[in-house]
Design a protein that fits this description.
Blueprint: H1 6-14, H2 18-27, H3 37-47, H4 53-61, H5 68-93, H6 95-111, H7 115-131, H8 135-151, H9 155-194, H10 200-211, H11 225-241, H12 245-260, H13 263-266, H14 271-286, H15 290-302, H16 308-329, H17 332-346, H18 360-369, H19 373-384, H20 393-409, H21 413-429, H22 435-449, H23 453-470, H24 474-480, H25 485-494, H26 498-511
Length: about 500
């Protein structure tokens, strides 16, 4: 029996839902369960907060002599039993598996000439296939109607039904072709947006070609529920790419409403519904509809995940948008509470399945906004220490700029001198410094040396004017909008907190 590394077994068990674990216990039940070492190993791994192979081995054998080969075989056996249990579990849960089993049942009954029984099973399969738009299964069921009638030499049935069956087959083929065409269009758009995003020329050409496709003239061109979902997914991506955020918002709402008209589809697969809610939250944020963002997040939070992937997606999307909402509204006290909840929840997730580094910037921003510079610096340092391949280049550059700002806030002027030099060297090695980076570095260098408050205030005003002018340049604007530099400058000019100024900007924006 091949060896199964313990960490693979550990991750498999940790990926199981509560119902899947219970099903496994039922699936392998014997009268001697308590003496089964593989069940002992299963329970030991399930209880471990972190993988420890040596502790597992001692717990399983409980003082008995340990043979390395036998232990490896035990792990391999348990892994195999778990996979078989999951296959059985999925057969009872997933529509595709239930349909496959019903149609295999028809085949088995057909071999034994139990034709009446075949029709009874076919009726169940057809009802299920129609309810879930399983077009391939519907085609197979139609084939069986003809095959069984032929085997029975039921001339009257074929004479009466053959044209109807042929018409239904042609309709199924049209529906399959329609769905396939929408899928192809969606993947073409998705690839165009994701591939070489900076090379707008070729991307725009593909998006323009897709947007003028006859199938996108209206949702009525989509002939099934699944096709209509693809229609709206394509249209939302096109609207987002064109920065038509109003349409992105409207289409996103229509997509969610469409998905919710057939809840039984969502009980089968939640992944696209989670993505649709997440995109809708983004669209609401673009339009300043922050109450709707919060409503959308609460809706996301109430979803009961079907798979571990659903659970991770919900967690990631909820907190990504929740942090952003706290940052945009200036509610950093709420942000602190959300961060603590997030960190607590992360302890329950497999660290190999979930990477918290994607949240370091948001952690930094919230602690900075709350005035807790020590913890903000801690997360900023973790962000700075990430391998460069993990983060986008613009975020790498931004992290170094923010490092200067937080040390300036903390009054670390002696350290700032060396940080200014290293930051300048790093940014200069990239595509050259942006103007806002040059001006900010110059300001911090001069402010760190000056004790004259009037001179510092004059430099702050000049820097604010420079930043406002630089917002007219797309590349500068993209970086300046990643952090509220204006609120930071105004906090020094007006002697008020960063959080208070961000909150006032939010109130002004939403009251107009």
């Amino acid at each position: 029996m091949p060896k199964t590394p313990s960490d693979r077994l550990y991750h498999l068990i940790k990926s199981l839902s509560g119902s899947e674990k219970r099903y496994f216990k039922i699936f392998v039940h014997t009268d001697n369960d308590k003496d089964n070492k593989y069940l002992r190993l299963f329970d030991a791994i399930d209880a471990q907060p972190a993988f420890d192979d040596e502790a597992l081995c001692l717990q399983v054998y409980q003082g008995e002599p340990i043979q390395s080969r036998k232990y490896s075989e035990l792990k391999a056996y348990l892994y195999d039993m778990l996979v078989r249990s999951l296959q059985s579990y999925d057969e009872k849960q997933a529509v595709d598996n239930r349909l496959r089993n019903l149609l295999l049942g028809v085949k088995s009954l057909y071999k034994r000439a139990l034709f009446d029984d075949c029709f009874k099973v076919l009726q169940k399969a057809e009802k299920l296939a129609e309810n879930y738009e399983k077009l391939d299964a519907q085609m197979e069921a139609l084939h069986w109607h003809k095959q069984i009638a032929y085997a029975r030499a039921d001339i009257a049935y074929l004479d009466r039904q053959l044209d109807l069956i042929a018409a239904r087959e042609a309709e199924c083929l049209d529906l399959i072709r329609n769905l396939t065409d929408y899928q192809t269009l969606f993947y073409r758009v998705w690839v165009a947006v994701r591939k070489n995003a900076q090379r707008a020329g070729s991307q725009d050409e593909v998006l323009h070609e897709v947007s003028s496709h006859p199938l996108l003239t209206g949702p009525d061109q989509a002939l099934t529920h699944q096709s209509r979902i693809f229609y709206y997914r394509i249209k939302t991506v096109l609207s987002y790419s064109a920065k038509d955020y109003q349409n992105f918002y409207l289409l996103g709402g229509e997509l969610i409403a469409l998905m919710e008209t057939k809840p039984h589809f969502l009980r089968e697969d939640l992944s696209e519904y989670i993505s649709a809610l997440s995109n809708y939250a983004v669209s609401c944020g673009f339009l300043g509809r922050y109450r709707e963002v919060n409503d959308c997040l609460e809706k996301l939070r109430r979803i009961t995940p079907i798979t571990l992937d659903d659970k991770l997606k919900i967690h990631r999307q909820y907190y990504t948008h929740k942090f952003r909402l706290c940052i945009e509204t200036g509610d950093f006290d709420e942000g602190l509470r959300v961060v603590e909840n997030h960190l607590n929840e992360l302890e329950q997730l497999d660290k190999d399945l979930f990477e918290r580094s994607s949240f370091y910037f948001q952690y930094f921003y919230i602690f900075f906004g709350a005035g807790n510079y020590n913890r903000a610096l801690d997360y900023l340092n973790q962000w700075l220490n990430l391998p460069r391949s993990i983060e986008r280049q613009d975020l790498q550059s931004l992290s170094r700029v923010l490092n200067l700002i937080i040390h300036y806030e903390m009054g670390n002027y002696l350290l700032l001198e060396s940080l200014l030099r290293s930051t300048y060297r790093y940014l200069n090695k990239q595509e050259g410094l942006l103007e806002f980076e040059i001006k900010l570095i110059h300001f911090i260098r001069q402010a760190g040396k000056s004790v004259d408050k009037k001179e510092t205030r004059k430099a702050l005003l000049a820097l604010k004017t420079d930043f406002q002018q630089l917002l007219q340049k797309p590349k500068e604007k993209a970086m300046l909008q990643m952090f509220d530099f204006e609120a930071w400058l105004d906090s020094h000019l007006e002697g008020r907190s960063f959080a208070q100024l961000v909150k006032e900007k939010y109130i002004d924006k939403t009251s107009t």
